[in-house]
Amino acid sequence: MHLCxxxxxxxxxxxxxxxxxxGNELITLSDKLxxxxxxxxxxxxxxxxxxxxxxxxxxxxxxxxxxxxxDLQLDxxxxxxxxxxxxxxxxxxxxxxxxxxxxxxxxxRTVPEHQLWFPxxxxxxxxxxxxxxxxxxxxMTDYEAEMVAIIxxxxxxVPPEAAHEVVFGYAVGNDVSVRDxxxxxxxxxxxxSFDTHAPYGxxxxxxxxxxxxxxxEMRCWVNGxxxxxxxxxxxxxxxxxxxxxxxxxxxxxxxxxxxxxxxxGVGAAFNPPKFLRAGDTVxxxxxxxxxxxxxxxxxxxxxxxxxxxxxx
Length: 312
Fold this sequence. Notes:
The protein is of the alpha+beta class. It has 2 domains: 2-80, no CATH class; 89-298, Fumarylacetoacetase-like, C-terminal domain (Fumarylacetoacetate hydrolase, domain 2, Alpha-Beta Complex). 20% of the residues lie in helices and 31% in strands. It has 8 helices and 19 strands. It has helices at residues 46-52, 54-67, 97-103, 179-183, 189-192, 207-210, 239-249, 303-311; strands spanning 2-8, 17-22, 25-28, 72-73, 77-80, 89-93, 116-119, 125-126, 132-134, 141-142, 145-151, 167-174, 177-178, 198-206, 217-222, 225-231, 257-259, 281-286, 290-298. Strand 1 and strand 2 (17-22) form a beta hairpin. The longest helix is centred in the first third of the chain and has 14 residues, at 54-67.
């Protein structure tokens, strides 16, 4: 199934709801599902509520997807990030050997001995088709096509052979990166967490529909030019080993989001580099999961904020 978070266009704009897709038709779930304790889905985080109670509500969702009349068409809604405010968004770096090799040219580092993790903070989470904002403070904003995994249940100390049991589904992501900020220190958080720099979606494809997540073609185009093309089978650390590593450290919760790494072909690796500029269009597509598309725009100066800073 394909599950999305959206707001209707027009008078109802601003109210986030969730739905299940049937082709280009959308059946809303927020007002139809009954949770095991008889309460409706949370208005604050309905997708996390759905994921948390999935074993109990899945038959209801399947029945609606199969037979309920459509409430809306896809072109009547604004798709939001499937989980607009995940509890945690974690990303692994340097997880495809060809990307490692293109990244270490001219630098005194090698293939990482251990998994390399960083967070993408909540302000970076962004809808799948909204504009990517290029920050005023840098001219080195880059794209990174990635498969995203969504955690389905609370878990700790998960062995790799059981990790598939805790994944709810998958989506398409772009780990937008501001390279000069990323490389200023050994900690990548700032360079990876600018506003709008974690778009993902366009929906969650449930794990049962994906099958093996390590056999999916992945592509990224910038202005129609194919920049990245690989397959998730080339990950050095599988989704299962990533979950095993993370759950040694922390409890993962329903709705936590994992960016699983990018392949070669990022803008920084070209000579000269091909960083994103206003007017560029970035399309990331992953087999069976769909595609996300974003136009790039320059950051606008917020006069109110500037005035407040001046008074301070």
